[in-house]
Amino acid sequence: MLAVVQTEKVSYENAEEASITVSVTDVDGPVEGAGVRVEVTNAVGNRLGGEAATGDDGAAILAFRIDIPRDGAGMYAVDAVASKAGYDPAHTSTTFEVVGEATGRGDN
Fold this sequence. Notes:
Layout: E1 2-7, E2 11-13, E3 17-26, E4 29-30, E5 35-41, E6 47-53, E7 59-65, H1 68-71, E8 74-83, E9 90-99
Protein backbone atom coordinates (compact mmCIF):
# COMPACT_ATOMS: atom_id res chain seq x y z
CA MET A 1 0.00 0.00 0.00
CA LEU A 2 1.23 3.48 -0.91
CA ALA A 3 -0.03 6.80 0.47
CA VAL A 4 0.55 10.30 -0.93
CA VAL A 5 -0.48 13.49 0.88
CA GLN A 6 -0.92 16.84 -0.81
CA THR A 7 -2.50 20.23 -0.32
CA GLU A 8 -4.15 22.14 -3.15
CA LYS A 9 -1.79 25.11 -2.65
CA VAL A 10 1.79 25.54 -1.44
CA SER A 11 1.03 28.78 0.42
CA TYR A 12 -1.94 30.01 2.49
CA GLU A 13 -2.97 33.23 4.22
CA ASN A 14 -4.81 33.78 7.48
CA ALA A 15 -8.41 32.49 7.63
CA GLU A 16 -8.04 30.33 4.51
CA GLU A 17 -8.90 26.64 4.62
CA ALA A 18 -6.23 24.16 3.58
CA SER A 19 -7.69 21.04 2.00
CA ILE A 20 -5.43 18.07 2.73
CA THR A 21 -5.89 15.02 0.51
CA VAL A 22 -4.36 11.62 1.24
CA SER A 23 -4.54 9.21 -1.70
CA VAL A 24 -4.04 5.51 -0.95
CA THR A 25 -3.33 2.88 -3.61
CA ASP A 26 -1.99 -0.61 -4.04
CA VAL A 27 -0.96 -2.58 -7.14
CA ASP A 28 -4.63 -2.99 -8.10
CA GLY A 29 -5.55 0.71 -7.79
CA PRO A 30 -7.33 2.83 -5.16
CA VAL A 31 -7.73 1.36 -1.66
CA GLU A 32 -11.22 1.97 -0.25
CA GLY A 33 -11.84 1.97 3.50
CA ALA A 34 -8.30 2.70 4.66
CA GLY A 35 -8.08 4.64 7.90
CA VAL A 36 -6.05 7.83 7.56
CA ARG A 37 -4.55 9.81 10.43
CA VAL A 38 -3.22 13.28 9.56
CA GLU A 39 -1.11 15.42 11.88
CA VAL A 40 -0.28 19.05 11.08
CA THR A 41 2.67 20.59 12.93
CA ASN A 42 2.22 24.35 12.86
CA ALA A 43 4.87 27.08 12.75
CA VAL A 44 5.14 27.25 16.55
CA GLY A 45 5.56 23.48 16.92
CA ASN A 46 2.08 22.51 18.10
CA ARG A 47 0.42 19.45 16.56
CA LEU A 48 -3.19 19.26 15.42
CA GLY A 49 -4.66 16.05 14.10
CA GLY A 50 -7.62 14.52 12.37
CA GLU A 51 -8.84 11.20 11.01
CA ALA A 52 -10.81 10.10 7.96
CA ALA A 53 -11.39 7.04 5.81
CA THR A 54 -10.73 6.68 2.11
CA GLY A 55 -13.64 6.49 -0.29
CA ASP A 56 -13.96 4.30 -3.35
CA ASP A 57 -11.51 6.62 -5.15
CA GLY A 58 -8.87 5.86 -2.49
CA ALA A 59 -8.86 9.46 -1.23
CA ALA A 60 -9.48 10.92 2.21
CA ILE A 61 -9.89 14.70 2.51
CA LEU A 62 -9.46 16.74 5.68
CA ALA A 63 -9.77 20.51 6.15
CA PHE A 64 -7.45 22.68 8.22
CA ARG A 65 -8.39 26.31 8.98
CA ILE A 66 -5.43 28.71 8.93
CA ASP A 67 -5.35 30.79 12.12
CA ILE A 68 -2.14 32.82 12.38
CA PRO A 69 -2.79 34.15 15.93
CA ARG A 70 -3.14 30.55 17.17
CA ASP A 71 -0.65 28.74 14.94
CA GLY A 72 1.82 31.34 13.64
CA ALA A 73 3.13 32.11 10.18
CA GLY A 74 5.85 30.01 8.57
CA MET A 75 6.31 26.42 7.41
CA TYR A 76 3.81 23.75 8.43
CA ALA A 77 4.49 20.00 8.20
CA VAL A 78 1.79 17.48 7.30
CA ASP A 79 2.37 13.85 8.28
CA ALA A 80 -0.10 11.11 7.39
CA VAL A 81 -0.40 7.40 8.05
CA ALA A 82 -2.82 5.13 6.19
CA SER A 83 -3.72 1.72 7.56
CA LYS A 84 -5.98 -1.17 6.65
CA ALA A 85 -6.12 -4.80 7.67
CA GLY A 86 -3.93 -6.95 5.43
CA TYR A 87 -1.53 -4.11 4.59
CA ASP A 88 1.54 -2.59 6.18
CA PRO A 89 0.89 1.02 7.26
CA ALA A 90 1.87 3.64 4.66
CA HIS A 91 3.53 6.89 5.78
CA THR A 92 3.67 10.13 3.78
CA SER A 93 4.42 13.79 4.40
CA THR A 94 4.48 17.23 2.81
CA THR A 95 4.79 20.87 3.82
CA PHE A 96 3.02 24.14 3.11
CA GLU A 97 3.69 27.74 4.06
CA VAL A 98 1.48 30.19 5.92
CA VAL A 99 2.25 33.81 5.05
CA GLY A 100 1.09 37.18 6.31
CA GLU A 101 -0.12 38.47 9.62
CA ALA A 102 -3.37 38.36 11.56
CA THR A 103 -5.78 40.71 9.81
CA GLY A 104 -8.91 40.58 11.93
CA ARG A 105 -10.63 38.33 9.36
CA GLY A 106 -11.43 35.08 11.12
CA ASP A 107 -8.73 35.60 13.72
CA ASN A 108 -10.85 34.21 16.56
